[in-house]
Structure formats: structure tokens, C-alpha cells
Amino acid sequence: MAEKHLNNRRQVTAMEKTKIIEIIRFFIGLAIIGYASIVFALMLMAKGALGMFLFALITPYGFPVIFACVPGLYFMFTSKIRWKADVLMGILAVLSIIFTTTALIPEIMLGDISGNNPVLITVVDRNNIPLVGLEVDIGAKPGPPPKGGVATTDENGTAHFSLKAGTYYVYFNSNNFPKEYKEPSQFETIEVIDGKIASKTIVLEKK
Fold it and tell me: For the chain, how far is it from start to end, CA to CA, in angstroms?
């Protein structure tokens, strides 16, 4: 009787340990995905583009989150210890954290490019006719534009920015780019220097 009670006690203890391991693994996976997602959201907030969260996931900015889902989901939904797979996924988890930190944290730090240097981007067609009401984006690299990196062309086809000094890409929002024109296949760049007006004219081709 005592032996049976002891065996039952051991089984309960084993089940408790298994449950604890499942919970620990679940929260490890959740932490991996959560870290990448939070840093990603902070990066979008710094760029004033939090509303583009889902769309941004399919851009290069979103790759750290997608990468983090591989080890994260593995630990969340596998309860048994598999040493080889666990070690592999553990390595991927560490790489995910490093990748997220090195790829997105700098974007948070440089998220606001607003400054005091005037930047004028003029967009015209081949006949020198200005394109009015066109969104123009400027950023350290193509993607969701940072705060201060979005403007709309006026009646002269000119988008006005006030930016910090630096070298930036000039590009367009594919979602509202005019269908009758070809979106440039190569990104323009512009150098902004303290105390000087930077300007660039972009000529668009009709389809």
C-alpha cells in the first residue's frame, strides 16, 4: 500500500515537472517573439508608421520578427525536450536577438530625421509638368519613412522637408503612386549639409 502510494506520488511529481517544463518553454518562446515584436513596434513608432505594422512585416524591417518566430513558435508548442533540436533552436534564438538588436535598435535611435536644413524634392514628367499631390519619402534606407521623412508635392511639384544633416534615399509610396507613371526602379539619394539648401529634381516616365 505504501509502495503504491509512493509510486503515485512519483507519477504526480513527474507530471508536475513536465508541466513546469512546458510552461517554461512556452514563455521562452513567447519572450523570443515578444522581444522582436516590441523592438519592431518601437522602430515603427519612431518613424511615425505604427499603423503600417502588418504591411511593414513583409519589408526588410520585418524580417527579424519573422526570423524570431521560428525558434519562438518551436519552444512555445513543443513540450518534450529534444536535445539536438533544442540546441539548434537555442542558437537560432540567440541569433534572432542579436539580429533584432543590431538591425532595429539603430533605426529607433535615428527614427526622427527632422532638422533645420531645407530639402526640396521636385517631381516632374518628361514635359516638365509638375506632379501635384504626390507623396515623397526620404529615409536612411528605403522602407517605412521615418518621422520627418514624408511630404506631399505642391502646385509646383515640390515636396518640402526640414531634415538633419546626412545622406538619404528619396523614394515613393507604392500604395498611392500614380498608375500612369513608372515607379523608378533605382532610388535617388540626396546629401543634406548643415546650413545649406539641398534640392533634387526627379523626372518620371509615363507608362
Answer: 88
